[in-house]
Amino acid sequence: MSDHRTRRRKARISTTALALGATAALSALTLTACSEDSSGTGSGDDGRLDVIASFYPMEFVAERVGGDLVSVTTLTAPGTEPHDMELTARQTASLSEADVIVYLEGIQPAVDQAIEQAGAAHTAEALSLAGAHAEEESGHGEEEGHAEGDTHAEEEGHAEEGHTHAEEEGHAEGDTHAEEESGHAEDSHDGHDHEGGDPHIWLDPVAYAAVTEGVAEVFAEADPDHAADYHNNADALIAELNALDAEYEEGLAGRTGDTFITTHAAFGHLAERYGLHEEAIAGLDPESEPSAARMQELHDIAEHENVTTVFFETLVSDETARTLAGDLGLETAVLDPLEGITEDSPGADYLEVMRANLEALRKALGADAA
């Protein structure tokens, strides 16, 4: 009887040991799997803010504003053309786990849809951030204008006259500007229609500075303990962007022409900032093919505007650009829209590539001889 109880006790101990061993093994596998998964999505287990950026311009600003306090994962691999990029199932799942998502609406439809469905706690959408800054600046101007107008009306009693004059002035300027913009849009067919949502705002250093400020605000909301650090980092980048803006203003001041031809309509915001005129072979989608009529129109524009260079990009085919340049006896050069950094990029980061773009524009527009 004693031997029988002993055998039963040993059997129970063996069964318990097996169960404990299996549980430990399963736990180890689970921890390993979690660790491997987090390495691809930046889980923030190390105390850093887990940030997902949609593509390079958003990655750059997130890394500069966040510094060592953030772990940034980009959805778009280097060398990938971002416009038509599709997300993997793992990337889609990671969006709902991120602390902050930094993205730009309108350039990657698949990303926009996934972010909308993810329900992330904090998002920094670049177009909204830049737009809010522009509205704020416009509001300050209107307040000053209204104050001056009201004072003038009170002193002169010409409120109605002043209003009429302002309307006439506004309509005249607005109509002229609208006609110019309309003409440019018609000239380029698939070119920039800003009201249609040109998303390439990062190529305007002033707009990109506004995005930087907005990203710092969102990071501070997500991680209040380090708010001052985020704002200090943003201020440092904004100072560099302001310096870059000044370099463009000065560098393009002595140009002999304003018109340049590009592969796709990525440089409208930059052109508008510095008083240039972009003519795009394709539209906002770099993969679209120009019509025969558009190619003929570009021939005419190049001859009429004394265009010297047809620009192409590093992430899309240069075949059409080289064909057009060959037909007209023009030069070709890279004007990089900074949608991604590769070993073929004319610089290692945003600031270097933007300065390379400036030199390319200076040469093409005759400013390097000034």
From TrEMBL:
Belongs to the bacterial solute-binding protein 9 family. The keyword Endoplasmic reticulum does not apply. GO terms for biological process: metal ion transport. Gene3D superfamilies: Nitrogenase molybdenum iron protein domain. It comes from Streptomyces aidingensis. It comes from the Bacteria. This is Zinc transport system substrate-binding protein. Residues 1-33 form the signal peptide. One of its GO terms (molecular function) is metal ion binding.
